[in-house]
Amino acid sequence: MTEDVLDQAEAWRKEGRNVALATVVTTWGSSPRPIGSQLAVDGEGKFLGSVSGGCIEGAVIKEALAAIGDGKPRLLDFGVTNEQAWEVGLACGGKVQVFVEKLG
User: Fold this and answer.
1) What are the sequence ranges of the domains in the chain?
2) Which among 58, 55, 36, 35 has a CA at the least distance from the CA of 47?
3) What is the pLDDT of residues 70-89, one digit of tens each?
4) Per-residue three-class SS string for 80-98
């Protein structure tokens, strides 16, 4: 799956689209996706891949679009001690950190 995500991100870039890549960099406890899982997002909000199995993907896509806009990378924290985790549906008892960066 990771190769598909990277291949799609590169294809989008070759088409002249802005692209951000989100990567799971840390997990603890119950986490829906393992370290190294990736999600590519283009400037129109199209995406491929997964960093959470769905529970935090909307928030990650929003931050990816922001990274495309301002060019600044982000390290996102989601976990049971984080109020945002409950808002986005990560009540599974774990923690996940996702690094988001604009490509190119």
Assistant:
1) 2-102
2) 58
3) 999 999 998 765 555 556 55
4) CCCHHHHHHCCCCCCEEEE
